[in-house]
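Researcher: Good morning. I'm working through a list of sequences from a screen, and I'd like to move beyond sequence-only analysis. For each chain I'm collecting a predicted structure so we can compare shapes side by side. This is the next one on the list. No need for commentary yet; just the structure.
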Amino acid sequence: MLFSWSLWIVATLLALLVAVDAQAAESFTGKAVGVTDGDTISVLRDGKAVKIRLDGIDCPERGDDFSSKAKKFTSALVFGKSVEVRGKDNDRYGRLVARIVVDGQDVSVALVQAGLAWHYLKYSSDPVLRRAETTAKAAEIGVWSLPNPLPPWEVRSLRKSGASPKQAVATSKDAPPSGDSGVVFHGNRRSRVFHAPWCRYYTCKNCVVEFTSKQEAIEAGYRPGGHCRP
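Model: Good morning. Structure tokens for this chain:
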């Protein structure tokens, strides 16, 4: 009896996992009824609002430069409109990760083109998003008009460690903060130079190799950037 009950539980859990995966991969059309921030919206499906995290991008954190503009940009594109949801996955918060298309326009791409979102390289290798970010950088629009734009994932990391992202940016003109605690360094895979969050070239096109300490970067054959003091 116990064995049969265990089998039933396992079978039920497997069915639920399959259902979640199927839902994530599904596409549907619905009305956008909410915009939480630049990269999170709600879309009606079968009379219920489904929270959706836009795939492939990361918008500025709430309260940071261009966060309100990113939200307004997304609202102008989708709010109150019928949108196509192309499900990809579910994130750890239970949100559906999806590409949103409205009036033939991919919202993720539009945000990156406007300089209001980063291409989220950790979760996406989309060449369209990569090109869009390169173009926005070259035009110095949106976040790329700032002297030292910090990507949202680094802002979250700094805040989690108790550091101030604004102070980290400000130190590019003064002295860098002491110690490596909570700092993620970016290495340029071509020049083999590494930068800290307060460095001008921290978010350069090829600065995609991450190190948790200066020593780790140096041992990997990278040297500190000369434009600041990482």
